[in-house]
Amino acid sequence: MKILQKHGETLELLCMPSELDFEIGDYIKLGEGNSFLLAQVVDVGYVDLPGGVEELLRELIVAEVDGVSSLDPYNTSSLSMMVREVRCVTAKVRAIFHNGLQAQTSPWLPSRYTATHEKAGPHLLHQLILGDENQFLFCPGTVGGEPINLPLTRLDGSLTIITGKKESGKSHLAKIIVEGIVSNGGTVVVLDVNGEYLSLDKRFDGGKSDLADALTLLHPGRNFTASLRMMGLKTFHDIMEHVYGTPATSLRELGRIWKKLEKECGDFCLDDLMDVVENEPMNEAVREALLSRLESINSSGFISDNDPTDLAELLKPRPGGNVTVVNLSKLLPSTRRLVVEYLLSHLSTLLSSNKIEPLFLLAEEAHLYLRETYWEDLVTRMRHIGMFPIFVTNQPDTIPELVYRQADNIFLFNFTNDTDLEKISKISKIDSETVKLLVKKMPPRRCLVLGKIVSDIPLMLKVRTSSLMTMGQTKLFFKRSSATKDHR
């Protein structure tokens, strides 16, 4: 293998077909002595030789003419054939190490003629990514056929996005990340919109999983309720405004009545609030607007003064970790947004007052229930108070650009749509050409890992299998029976 040329971060290498002992996405180490350059393979093609097209046409014509033979007394045709079969490997420079130290701005380059080359193994990548870190590690899968550990500390205090098209393995990886965080003593709150996380206490063979003792399932309206006192005027005002679209005039009247009840009664319930709205002198249109919305909230069953859920107690740190799954799968859209609005507001209050420890928030398809103004809140303020979001989506265009620009880590599964890839490549720290070349070719359960968690050295990761009952598989109508499989 020889270096042909370098333009910016793009490196072109010449090699024989027999030297292609790597896959797209693997790393090649090119070095001399104590210095080396780390380059990621993104494409393999043919060398554009002068007169190459004419030579191919000549061979096609000769092959069509019977009985024609060419004289080659010195057997130069075999050498010519080898030259024509040389491959051009396109790679992207990811790191430069000069005299044993990483020096990204160093002008050093290996010699075109004497540089040695080898496939960079998992051991070297481990060293570059982890450095001296040896605690709070988890194994999401393999690189180059070898297991690789990644540091959970790089998810801590960070914004993480897991995205890719459907059935590519996003939720499977999300569950592995949750398992890693919880097994290291962390706390995770999961907003489960599809009911995929309800069986984390079971293994796929039906046995008890390692998360069984850490798992708490919350079903809004059943074992997860809130009182008006816990909710407070601000949160209730936001729910009425953003979830139920209450007009400004009605909201002002609601605030006046709320403060009046607080002054006269102290604690009050939803029925008390509805009674006052029904009997208080006010414009009939305002009364109707408030009553219809309060009745909708009441019918959700989420607001109740009978033993409301104490989130501070539920989210206390546990030696074996803590994962709380909020089941949003069977709720009406308005009830779902009501629950999420309360949950995020209440968690912010608990974190701000140091009543609970920092936690991770895993949100599947958050665009279905998260109002626009909350995106900025999650990305900025909530991260500072100790809530670290992990967004999982198959529709990257539904997440505001603000979120992508603030993302610290991205797990990128297969996409074939150029619009989706263009959006993501704009905000990743690697070039758009790499994203498009690598991601379009990836099979299911493979992802490109970008960001802090890999020290900005992009990794092609094969996600491992999990012993958890992960659920989330697509339900099919036409199912191939085991008998048919055996027969085939």
Automatic annotation (TrEMBL):
One molecular function GO term is: 3'-5' DNA helicase activity
Entries under InterPro entries matching the protein: HerA-like, HerA_central, P-loop_NTPase
Give the superkingdom in one word.
Archaea
**Recorded catalytic activity of this chain's protein:** ATP + H2O = ADP + phosphate + H(+); Couples ATP hydrolysis with the unwinding of duplex DNA by translocating in the 3'-5' direction
Task: Cite the Helicase HerA central domain residue spans from the record.
Answer: 168-346
Family per record: Belongs to the HerA family.
Q: What protein is this chain from?
A: Helicase HerA central domain-containing protein
**What is the protein's species of origin?**
Caldiarchaeum subterraneum
